[in-house]
Every structure is written in structure tokens, then in C-alpha cells.
Automatic annotation (TrEMBL):
The protein, known as: Maintenance of telomere capping protein 6
The keyword Kinase appears for this protein: no
Lineage: Eukaryota, Fungi, Dikarya, Ascomycota, Saccharomycotina
Positions in coiled-coil regions: none
InterPro entries xref list: Telomere_Capping_Maintenance (IPR051008), TIM-barrel_MTC6 (IPR057530)
Keywords for the protein's UniProt record, in alphabetical order: Glycoprotein, Membrane, Signal, Transmembrane, Transmembrane helix
Amino acid sequence: MLIPTPKHLTSTLFLINLSFFFLIPIIKATNETNWPELSRRQIIARRSQRDLSANISISKLSLTGVGLSTTVFNDFGYNQDTVSQVYDLLNVGVQTLYVDLYWNEQMNKFQLCPFQYEISTAVNQSETATNEDGVSCLRSLTMNDLMSVVQSYIVESDTNLFGDLVVMILNLYSLNDTSISYSQDLQGTWNDTLSSVMTSYFNNYLYTPTALQSERTTDVNNTNLIDGYPRLSKLLFTEKKRLLTFINQYEIPLYSSYNVSNDNDLFFNISAQNSSIIPVLETSDIQSSTELTAKASQDWLFTIDSINSHLQFSEDSVHNLITNGYSPILNHTIPEISDIATIFGNSLWSWGQGEPLFVTEAMKRYSNDTGYIQEAYKCASMSLNGSYQVANCYEEKYYILRDVHDRLNWTLSSQKSSYFHIYQVSDDGDADNDDKSKRKFNVPKDSLERMAVVLYLNSLENVNFEDFWIDLNSINVDNCWVTGGPYASCPYEIVSSNRNFVEMLVAASLCCLILFVLMASLRLRRVPIRDNRKHWKKLMNQYSTSDYDGVPS
Ligand SMILES: *[C@@H]1O[C@H](CO)[C@@H](O)[C@H](O)[C@H]1NC(C)=O
Ligand SMILES: *[C@@H]1O[C@H](CO)[C@@H](O)[C@H](O)[C@H]1NC(C)=O
Ligand SMILES: *[C@@H]1O[C@H](CO)[C@@H](O)[C@H](O)[C@H]1NC(C)=O
Ligand SMILES: *[C@@H]1O[C@H](CO)[C@@H](O)[C@H](O)[C@H]1NC(C)=O
Ligand SMILES: *[C@@H]1O[C@H](CO)[C@@H](O)[C@H](O)[C@H]1NC(C)=O
Ligand SMILES: *[C@@H]1O[C@H](CO)[C@@H](O)[C@H](O)[C@H]1NC(C)=O
Ligand SMILES: *[C@@H]1O[C@H](CO)[C@@H](O)[C@H](O)[C@H]1NC(C)=O
Ligand SMILES: *[C@@H]1O[C@H](CO)[C@@H](O)[C@H](O)[C@H]1NC(C)=O
Ligand SMILES: *[C@@H]1O[C@H](CO)[C@@H](O)[C@H](O)[C@H]1NC(C)=O
Ligand SMILES: *[C@@H]1O[C@H](CO)[C@@H](O)[C@H](O)[C@H]1NC(C)=O
Ligand SMILES: *[C@@H]1O[C@H](CO)[C@@H](O)[C@H](O)[C@H]1NC(C)=O
Ligand SMILES: *[C@@H]1O[C@H](CO)[C@@H](O)[C@H](O)[C@H]1NC(C)=O
């Protein structure tokens, strides 16, 4: 008689799970440029890139941005509809908002509209005012309407899975048309300065220069900081901050009614951070390791395009800027707001377009032409052009090693290995015998580390391979890409203790065994299963709606 040992149970469980797996409808690849939402694949790719950069300084991230006045408001109007599209921009991965704000000297308030207009009981508030350039402004629109949309995005995405940094770059101007006057009840008060408004909308989410100053003095061991700024994951998940605000242009005259006194505590002065937003013409591609080192010492490398057609960002130029360490800000007019999704369609420095493939897709694409009997499409390789892609962990490839002290010094292994074997060879991940303690299997964690690898590849002669292993896999949980070798676990898994897990496994396996026996006996006895259909259907539905691939997206 067969006494089920844990091993048997596990394999039975595995078989049964497998049979369920094939019954679950295969997830369809969704439209990659859907507006205003990202496809499931894009969400996974962005999250994976964010997680790779967990220990990277926030000043070295690759962010995409939009100049709201030029790209959004001037053409589509300053109204509630357009303001609510800012939510969609953030939702498709735009992380930098480049915003013009106008201090209305006569009203003592900031406004989004670039010109002054009458607001009085004699004028209908739901109507728009239009200036000579054809820009139209809803009279009742205020700066608070924009901040409220940004706030709702930040609050709604404030989870481990979706939370990411938002950067607001503000240009402050002053409007002073003495012929217009506003009644007393429309006048701004002490709480209409920028600091009051931003504090009331973003208080807990705002990372301030004051906080940075104090961290720089207390964090002597660089636990939270690196290169003078917070590490991304520390900022988002330890300090729970989401928003950082820069003041770029400050064109409010000294004698203005604007009270600037608290601004320097809350907002970063972009030039005081040794940064500026440079025009596309002043950007340069990295050609040598000297140029790479120079760029790696800079912070907040923003670049902005312009209306000149040959300088306007396209999908390709955005990708090129991102891989050269810049954060591009879109500043030209576009036919539809949704076109932004196309222009930024290839704005990740890590995963290539259409990656990461889901396991079933990778099987379909690669199964035919690899000679490997065993297949596990749960590991990532880097192609010669620098982009990441899903590959079969059993394949033998060279793998990339990083100098332990220099994040820009990368070399390839001298031997090929399957992904699993890289770690078995040696604890420190270096199968090469020459300099074990100096180099480790690793993965580029920001655009410049990636560029360092690309420069190294360009320096090689006789390249006879197409891709090589990087330390990035989803072996633990499908679609949850982690670094740290094959045993690295997915941080988003529901954690249960080992003991519970064994108990659960035994219980679940017994359950499955009984079901299996029932199914088998039903078959043998040729009993019509119609009576049971509803029950089965319910079971199946429960299965297909349960979180079978670990990470929701
Ligand atoms: C993606 O969606 C856009 C807009 O809805 C549509 O024009 C395009 O044809 C779709 N592409 C695919 C591949 O379905
Ligand atoms: C970040 O650093 C922590 C602590 O040093 C480490 O455990 C973690 O694996 C690192 N994560 C990444 C993605 O580099
Ligand atoms: C104000 O204008 C809106 C839109 O033009 C219109 O629907 C509304 O009836 C007007 N209200 C008044 C009081 O005129
Ligand atoms: C400013 O104060 C007024 C009343 O004093 C209040 O109605 C308004 O909501 C406040 N604005 C902000 C941004 O807190
Ligand atoms: C910094 O590191 C040193 C040596 O490891 C340790 O003694 C000290 O307590 C650390 N300081 C802080 C603030 O963690
Ligand atoms: C606004 O214009 C008036 C009249 O030209 C001038 O006296 C005043 O100084 C100006 N105020 C600001 C802040 O520019
Ligand atoms: C500006 O604001 C600060 C702090 O809120 C306040 O102490 C100061 O009196 C204000 N200055 C003016 C001129 O209103
Ligand atoms: C920002 O910093 C620059 C240089 O440090 C300084 O000239 C400028 O006045 C500052 N701007 C503001 C608004 O404080
Ligand atoms: C900016 O550069 C100057 C001179 O190189 C340096 O003294 C200062 O510390 C830098 N500031 C920041 C915030 O990095
Ligand atoms: C953004 O575009 C507008 C409109 O073409 C232009 O006036 C402005 O100077 C641009 N901003 C920058 C920083 O180039
Ligand atoms: C595998 O390749 C063969 C020959 O190239 C082709 O006929 C067959 O359709 C392919 N099968 C799949 C599943 O792609
Ligand atoms: C890169 O690191 C290796 C050891 O990992 C070292 O031998 C080599 O000198 C380093 N190259 C540079 C340019 O620092």
C-alpha cells in the first residue's frame, strides 16, 4: 500500500496544480500603449526597474517629465478636464511635472492661467477667458485644483507595489495688471502662499531640504543616503516620502506681495543643488569611461526639448537620453495628450520593448529554437545593445561581474554557465578562479551602470554571443523580478512561517489527493458528472480568480 510521504504529496500537488494551470486562460498581451493605463507587462517592467534602483540615489534616477503649460494646458485649455488628465500622465509613468505658476499681485494668489482676467459676480464663473494667443482659462480654476489631482494620485498609488517618486519642478512668475481688481472675498490670505498650499496637500509626502540637511548630518554611515541624497527605497518605504519639489525659475520681483519666507525650507532650489535643466542641444552621448565617470558625479540631470522640430523628443531620442543618464522633460505641443504614452513608450533603461515576456509567451517564442530539454523562462539576460530580456535559466551563457568597490567597472566571466550554476560554483557568485573576492555576479541598477556595461562590451573584440546573464530573476514568484541569485525571494509574497507552510502543504496535498481520487473514480465508474458541474465550476472559478501568480498588477 502506498503511504504518502511528503515528497509524494508535493509531487501530487504539483501535478494537480499543473493541470489547473493549463485550464487557466492564458493572459492576453494587452495593447502596449493603452491610455490612460499601462499594460500589465509595463507595470511589471516599471516596478522591476524601480526595485533594481532601490539603493540608488534619487538624484540619479531616470525620470520622464512633461511641461504642463506647453504640452498640456496651452493647447487643451486650462480647465478641469485637462487638469484631471494630469492624473493619467502620472498613471502612465510620467514622474516629473514641470509647472508654471503665476502669482496674481492683485489677488494675492497663485494661478495656473498665464494671464489675468476678471472674476466678479458680473462674469459667469463656468465660462472661460481667452487671451490674444488663443489660450483659454476656466475662470474658476485655481492652483489648488492641480495640487488636488496630484495628491489623489499620490494617495491612491501609495503602496509597496505602486508607490514611486514624483518630482515637481516649479517656475514662479508674477502677474501685475493694475487695471483689474478683485473683491475682498476673492483675495488670498496667509494660507495662499506656495508653502501653505503645498503643506496642506502634501504634508506627509513632501521630502524637504530641511529633512535632507538633518539627514546629511546624522546619517554618517550612509544607511539612508548615498551620493548626498536618499536611496530610493529608503525615501519611499522607510521615510514614506513621495514628492520632491524644485523651484527652477523664480521671477517674482522683490517688492511683490508674495511672502517667500518659508519656501526655502520646503522646496529645493535647483541651482543650489548644482543642477539645471539643460536644453537638448547641450546634452551629449557617453563615449568613454572618462565621460561616464564625469556624468556619474552629477545630480539631477534634467533636459528639456523645444518646439523646434529637429529637437523635439521622439520615442528613440527619449530612449537615447535615458540610457545616457538624462531625465527628459517634454516641452512641445502634441496633437493628443495620449501621444505622450507613445513618446515615452521606450523610456526604461532596463527592460527592452515588449519585455519582460510572460512565461507562456517566452515558451512560444523560444521553445522551438533552443536545443535545451529543460526550460525555465524566469531569468533575465542582457543583450549586446544593453536591454534586458527573459531567457531560459538552463541555457549556458557568460555572466556579468561587477567590481565590488566600483559600480562602473564591469567584466564578463571567462566561462559559460546556466543561471542556476553561477551561484553553485562559489558563494560569492564568481566562478572564475582568478580574482574571486574582487568581482561579483551583479546587474546594472541604473542607467549609468548599464552604460558602463555597454561601453565594456564595445571594447571587446570577437564577440561571439548575443546575450549574457545578469543577476535578475523571477524564479521565486512569477513576474516578481528580484536580484540576489536564484534563492532571492519576492518581497511582495505573503510571508508565512516554515512550520505553517508544511502544515498547509500537507493539508492542501491531502485535499488534492482526495479530489484526485474522486475524479479518478468518477471516470472509472462512468458516472455522469452533470450533477456536480456547478460545484466544479465554482471550484474552478475560485482557482482562476485566486492570486495564482503572486504579484497583483
Ligand atoms: C492600441 O490602442 C490604440 C488606441 O486605442 C489603437 O489605435 C491601436 O490600434 C491599438 N493597437 C493594438 C496593437 O491593438
Ligand atoms: C539594497 O541594499 C540592501 C542592504 O544593503 C540589500 O539587502 C538589498 O539586496 C539591496 N537591493 C538592491 C536591489 O540592490
Ligand atoms: C454659465 O456658463 C455655463 C457654460 O457656458 C452655462 O451652462 C451656465 O448656464 C451659465 N450660468 C449662468 C448663471 O449664466
Ligand atoms: C485657506 O483658508 C481659508 C479660510 O481661512 C480656507 O477656506 C481655505 O480652504 C484655505 N486654503 C488652503 C489651501 O488651506
Ligand atoms: C556607524 O558605523 C560605526 C562603525 O561601524 C558604528 O560604530 C556607529 O555606531 C555607526 N553610527 C551610526 C549612527 O549608525
Ligand atoms: C505693479 O505695477 C504697478 C504699476 O505699474 C507698480 O507700481 C508695482 O510696483 C508693480 N508691482 C509689482 C510687484 O511688480
Ligand atoms: C511671511 O510669513 C511669515 C511666516 O508665515 C510671517 O512670520 C511673516 O510675518 C510674513 N511676512 C509678511 C510681510 O507678511
Ligand atoms: C537659488 O540658488 C541660487 C544660487 O545658489 C541663488 O542665486 C538664487 O537666488 C536662489 N533662488 C532662490 C529662489 O532662493
Ligand atoms: C555644488 O558645487 C559646489 C562647488 O563644486 C560644492 O561646494 C557644493 O557642495 C555643491 N552642492 C551640492 C548640493 O552638491
Ligand atoms: C517650453 O516651451 C515654451 C513654448 O515653446 C517656451 O516658451 C519655453 O521657453 C520652453 N521652456 C524651456 C525651458 O525651454
Ligand atoms: C517550430 O519550427 C518549425 C520549423 O521551423 C515550424 O514548422 C513549427 O511551426 C514551429 N513550431 C512552433 C510551435 O512555432
Ligand atoms: C576593474 O576591476 C578589476 C577587478 O575587479 C581590476 O582589476 C581593474 O583594475 C579595475 N579597472 C579599473 C579601470 O578600475
